[in-house]
């Protein structure tokens, strides 16, 4: 009975790590694709980082996440944080600018 605990622990850690890895890949990929398809002028109108800076931050973190297969968890979490900031803060502002309603 005592030998089944480490086997279950290893399986649980593997599945949690795989879930976090796949979630970070999806979030960072969506943010990078959205960033690359937007105009650079919209970023200046919002007063945020330029398009190139957002693309570089998210792209480098995505590349490190893919190359290390999520083993550098701190870099993956920095990438997830950057992608979430982009998707939850910058993306709605860009959407307001492009649909004609604007926030000003």
In short:
The protein is 81% helix and 0% strand.
Biggest sheet descriptor: none
Counting H and I runs of at least 4 residues, what is the number of helices?
A: 4
Secondary-structure element string: HHHH
Using only C-alpha atoms, the radius of gyration works out to: 18 Å
**Assembly state (oligomeric):** single chain
User: What is the helix content?
Assistant: over 70%
Report the uncertain regions. Answer: none
How would you sum up this structure, described in words?
- This protein has 104 residues and is mainly alpha-helical.
- Helix content is 81%, strand content 0%.
- The chain starts with a helix and ends in a 6-residue tail after the last helix.
Q: Secondary structure elements and their pairing?
A:
Elements: H1 4-36, H2 40-46, H3 51-68, H4 73-98
Helix pairs in contact: 1-3, 1-4, 2-4, 3-4
What descriptors fit this protein?
single chain; 104 residues; mainly alpha; 4 helices; elongated
